[in-house]
């Protein structure tokens, strides 16, 4: 068992732990972590978010329990004070000694506070930790409304300016250099950013060297030169960072001349048993104050410890950054400013829109070397990829920042053009190949699932738009490469078959199979084609029984012991006492188990095949009709009592539900569909969990579509607002008909709409604005279905040939004696499976 | 009846005269009673072929196979159980969806307008 001690529990220290436990065999290593802050590692990059909700928990990279779960010994609020390299021991502020086999220094950095006279005065703060922020915040409360200065116009300084503004003070950014973000921006882009920031209330003072901080006890102002004074009541210093390298220095490790512990490309210090990562490490003469290189160092360190010696830190480290500063996009990548002998720059500037875009290209205009974006960094990810992968540029490289003019394809091509090795998420080093593979091979079909599997987007989140595109495109390619064909017998999609049946006026399954299919059919294509016939000719399942699913063939729902359940229609859930008694009598006569369904009707279970026509004969005599609970068709339209009885009701939801249930009953569709009507927004009918729903509001009905419960619950989307009943019905008529014609078999409306390109907006255009010019034919087709309804059970009991199907044996009148029941709460249930 | 080998015609000791052919639905199945056994008989009208197998689906032990949809997979005639859509070859009895034990199949012949099913007892 080897002991790895990690000093520092910041972002990089945490990342080391995360990567280590994911790869190292638990039984071989003990990980011990020391952090001096009272909290476990949190996301410092998004520190300003702490102001928005004050919720420090939300910033945590992992909860405290995570360390325990992963067998990590965690010591927080315990500072490592000394390293004894000869005995390989460290000692801590609690006076305890620990031995290590490998020591990881991830102590990070501290804010650099320049040695200015008066810097110790009250009201001067740094911007680094949650505690810093809390102290600043407490002080800010006492000087609200005053002016506050931020010393440093770099990345962090501008973040701090935003925080100061949120604290209710007037921010003044003071920068020594003649431009903002001197490392990332050129003078012109800095000017654009400055104009923008000033328009938002952030004052900028450039080329200012602070001589001293004024005030008697507490700060009252800053003096830059004679007569050049800025009155402020608070100062936040954000003038860069200094590595926290005391431990290394005291232990005699090799140090940089201006600080930082020197490491090689294996992250080892001059003592091979001690490694340094993150902002404390001096690599290639540089301290890297960004998260991504720190994470990369953590990975290299983990690999080295685990013997993957080939894993080395890259010689050139990408310092590209993109961030949103107070709602303003700022990004720079590659070589942002560049001497003319290396290449040319293409610059676009528009101060009225606060836009600045600059790209640097090689002399031949073929490769991208770097660039700067202010105001709009939408194209950052693609530009970064072009740069990193040295991809060929379009003929007119200016199209990259100006957009291709005069129509034609977008300048960037598709994300799918990137090489598989392109690093999309630099925080987690996830490549395009990793993401696509996660979709195509591991079956992750959402950005969320892909993020979970690959960790892409979990760092800074900047790559999210690109990951979304990659996931979407990969899914699309799945849809295209996996040929949409019904089964081995039909090389067509359901929609194509629908059109074939209709255009060629095909009347039965064998005819279709002979004409456009091959072989003899199967349990996949038969019911799908049956549904198509039903949708086009509104024929009942009785006409072609052999191609129906068993439920449709016998017009009942098969249950687990081979018996069936019987569900008569109870439109809108409205039922008379007389009907209730009739159902009770019949259920009792045939000894059926009864239960109220989720769709507000009564289900009667345990009917044997031969009993079905007998039961239905009686139900029909009592005025009932089939409820199609067995079909891929309208099930129920659930309703609340609405204004008929309810004191809150805005309209008659039951009447509407009854009307609409009778309108759509018997219509076959790619999958079952359900409706709901609520009399007010309290939504007792749960209409927004249905394939279509109406909710009464002041001034009409809100119309919802494509919701469902089931395995993947989904709330319905709003199709139209405050329309009258006739309009609501018209829209739903078209919506259902369009769904019936275009959906794949066994696709509920929610899944169908999700896949419909353009989604709800597209559907609104088709249904409301008639963008496809098919509204009239959808209306006519729906009306034809409505007009040709007949109760298929009535048809069955009245037709001897159909009744004959309900015998268990063809050569005997005996019933099936294998069926056994046991009793359950005064009713019966199937005997358990053997 | 849970033997997994198909009963070959040569092993038939009894040809059972089940019912007239017109009693059986086209391109679908029906159940016949032979002694205490339930046997599913399938009329592949399209191919002019008949098959028979046990009515019991071995997955959940229910007497339902005769109510299953029939079809063909790469030329192999099959039945899909109506309960969970497990499919079985009607020539070998093996489970095509993989998850179940094989079923017993029986030879069928048509004579004098009647369906005859062969049993080994």
Give short descriptive properties of this protein.
heterodimer; A: 834 residues; alpha/beta; FAD/NAD(P)-binding domain; 5-stranded parallel β-sheet; 27 helices; 21% strand; B: 121 residues; mainly beta; Rieske Iron-sulfur Protein; 4-stranded antiparallel β-sheet; 3-stranded antiparallel β-sheet; 12 strands; 0% helix
Structure description:
The complex is a heterodimer of chains A (834) and B (121). With 834 residues, chain A is α/β, with parallel strands linked by helices. Chain A has 27 helices and 38 strands. Among the domains of chain A are: 2-109 and 243-305, 3-Layer(bba) Sandwich (FAD/NAD(P)-binding domain); 124-239, FAD/NAD(P)-binding domain, CATH 3.50.50.60; 494-553, no CATH class; 631-798, Sulfite Reductase Hemoprotein, domain 1 (2-Layer Sandwich), CATH 3.30.413.10. Chain A is 32% helix and 21% strand. A 5-stranded parallel β-sheet of chain A has the order 3-2-1-7-19. The longest helix of chain A is centred in the middle third of the chain and has 18 residues, at 464-481. The model of chain A is unreliable at 406-410 (pLDDT under 50). Chain B is mostly beta strands and 121 residues long. Chain B contains no helices and 12 strands. In chain B, the strands form 4 sheets. In chain B, strands 2-3-4-10 form a 4-stranded antiparallel β-sheet, with no helix packed on it. In chain B, strands 1-12-11 form a 3-stranded antiparallel β-sheet, with no helix packed on it. In chain B, strand 7 (69-73) and strand 8 (76-80) form a beta hairpin. The A-B interface holds A 488, 510, 519-523, 526-527, 545-551, 553-554, 558, 560-562, 609, 805, 808-812, 814, 816, 818-819, 833-834 and B 18-19, 23-28, 30-33, 38, 41, 44, 46-47, 60-64, 67-75, 77-78, 80, 82-83, 85, 87.
């Amino acid at each position: 068992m080897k002991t790895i001690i990690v000093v520092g529990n910041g972002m990089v220290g945490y990342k080391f732990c995360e990567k280590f436990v994911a790869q190292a065999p638990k039984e071989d290593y003990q990980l011990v972590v020391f952090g001096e802050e009272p909290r476990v590692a949190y996301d410092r990059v998004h520190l300003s978010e702490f102001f928005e909700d004050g919720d420090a928990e939300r910033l945590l990279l992992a909860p405290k329990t995570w360390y325990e779960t992963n067998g990590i010994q965690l010591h927080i609020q315990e500072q490592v004070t000394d390293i004894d390299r000869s005995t390989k021991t460290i000692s801590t502020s609690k006076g305890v000694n620990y031995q290590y086999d490998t020591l990881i220094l991830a102590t990070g950095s501290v804010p650099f506070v320049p040695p200015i006279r008066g810097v110790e005065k009250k009201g001067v703060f740094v911007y680094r930790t949650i505690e810093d922020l809390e102290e600043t915040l407490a002080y800010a409360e006492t000087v609200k409304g005053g002016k506050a200065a931020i010393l440093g116009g770099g990345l962090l300084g501008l973040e701090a300016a935003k925080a100061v503004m949120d604290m209710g003070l007037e921010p003044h950014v003071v920068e020594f250099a003649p431009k903002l973000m001197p490392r990332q921006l050129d003078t012109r882009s800095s000017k654009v950013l400055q104009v923008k920031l000033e328009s938002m209330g952030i004052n900028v003072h450039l080329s200012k060297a602070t001589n001293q901080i004024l005030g008697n006890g507490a700060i009252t102002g800053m003096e830059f030169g004679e007569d050049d004074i800025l009155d402020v009541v608070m100062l936040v210093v954000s003038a860069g960072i200094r590595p926290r390298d005391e431990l290394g220095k005291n232990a005699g490790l090799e140090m940089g001349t201006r600080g930082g512990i020197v490491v090689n490309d294996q992250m080892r210090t001059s003592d091979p048993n001690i490694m340094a990562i993150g902002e404390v490490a001096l690599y290639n003469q540089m301290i890297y104050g960004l998260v991504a290189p720190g994470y990369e160092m953590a990975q290299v360190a983990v690999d080295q410890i685990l013997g993957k010696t080939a894993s080395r830190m890259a010689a050139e480290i990408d310092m590209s950054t993109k961030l949103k500063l107070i709602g303003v996009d700022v990004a720079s990548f590659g070589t942002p400013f560049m001497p003319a002998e290396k290449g040319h720059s293409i610059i676009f500037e528009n101060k009225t829109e606060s836009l600045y875009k600059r790209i640097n290209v090689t002399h031949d205009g073929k490769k991208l070397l770097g660039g700067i974006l202010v105001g709009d960094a939408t194209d950052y990810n693609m530009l970064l990829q072009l740069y990193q992968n040295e991809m060929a540029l379009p003929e007119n490289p200016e199209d990259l920042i100006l957009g291709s003019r005069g129509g034609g394809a977008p300048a960037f091509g598709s994300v799918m053009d990137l090489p598989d090795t392109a690093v999309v998420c630099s925080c987690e080093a996830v490549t395009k190949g990793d993401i696509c593979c996660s979709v195509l091979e591991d079956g992750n079909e959402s950005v969320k699932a892909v993020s979970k599997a690959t960790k892409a987007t979990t760092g800074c989140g900047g790559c999210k738009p690109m990951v979304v595109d990659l996931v979407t495109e990969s899914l699309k390619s799945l849809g295209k490469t996996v040929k949409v064909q019904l089964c081995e017998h039909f090389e067509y999609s359901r929609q194509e078959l629908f059109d074939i049946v209709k255009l060629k006026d095909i009347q039965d399954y064998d005819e279709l199979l002979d004409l456009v299919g091959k072989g003899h059919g199967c349990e996949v294509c038969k019911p799908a084609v049956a549904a198509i016939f039903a949708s086009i000719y509104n024929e009942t399942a009785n006409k072609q029984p052999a191609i129906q699913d068993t439920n449709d063939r016998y017009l009942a729902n098969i249950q687990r012991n081979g018996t069936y359940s019987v569900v008569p229609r109870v439109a809108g859930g409205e039922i008379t006492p007389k009907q209730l008694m009739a159902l009770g009598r019949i259920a009792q006569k045939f000894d059926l188990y009864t239960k109220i369904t989720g769709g507000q009707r009564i289900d009667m279970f345990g009917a044997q095949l031969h009993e079905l026509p007998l039961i239905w004969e009686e139900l029909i005599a009592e005025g009932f009709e089939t409820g199609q609970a067995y079909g891929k068709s309208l099930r129920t339209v659930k309703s609340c009592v609405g204004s008929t009885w309810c004191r809150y009701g805005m309209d008659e939801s039951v009447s509407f539900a009854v009307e609409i249930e009778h309108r759509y009953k018997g219509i076959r569709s790619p999958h079952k569909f359900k409706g709901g009507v609520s009399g007010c927004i309290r939504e007792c009918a749960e209409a927004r969990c249905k394939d279509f729903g109406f909710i009464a509001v002041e001034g009409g009905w809100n119309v919802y579509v494509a919701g469902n419960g089931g395995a993947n619950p989904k709330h319905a989307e709003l199709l139209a607002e405050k329309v009258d009943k006739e309009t609501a019905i018209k829209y739903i008529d078209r919506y259902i008909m369009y769904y019936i014609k275009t959906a794949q078999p066994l696709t509920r409306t929610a899944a169908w709409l999700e896949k419909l390109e353009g989604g709800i907006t597209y559907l609104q255009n088709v249904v409301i604005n008639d963008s496809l010019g098919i509204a009239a034919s959808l209306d006519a087709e729906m009306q034809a279905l409505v007009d040709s309804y007949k109760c298929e059970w009535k048809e069955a009991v009245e037709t001897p040939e159909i009744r004959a199907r309900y015998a268990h044996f063809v050569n005997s009148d005996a019933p099936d004696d294998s069926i056994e029941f046991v009793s359950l709460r005064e009713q019966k249930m199937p005997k358990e499976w053997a | 009846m849970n033997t997994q080998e198909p009963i070959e015609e040569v092993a038939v000791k009894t040809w059972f005269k089940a019912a007239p052919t017109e009693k059986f639905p086209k391109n679908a199945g029906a159940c016949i009673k032979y002694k205490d056994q339930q046997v599913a008989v399938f009329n592949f009208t399209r191919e002019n072929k008949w098959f028979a197998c046990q009515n019991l689906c071995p997955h959940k032990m229910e007497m339902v196979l005769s109510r299953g949809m029939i079809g063909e997979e790469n030329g192999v005639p099959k039945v899909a159980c109506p309960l969970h859509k497990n499919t079985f070859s009607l020539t070998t009895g093996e489970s095509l969806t993989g998850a179940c034990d094989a079923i017993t199949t029986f030879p069928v012949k048509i004579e004098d307008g009647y369906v005859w099913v062969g049993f080994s007892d």
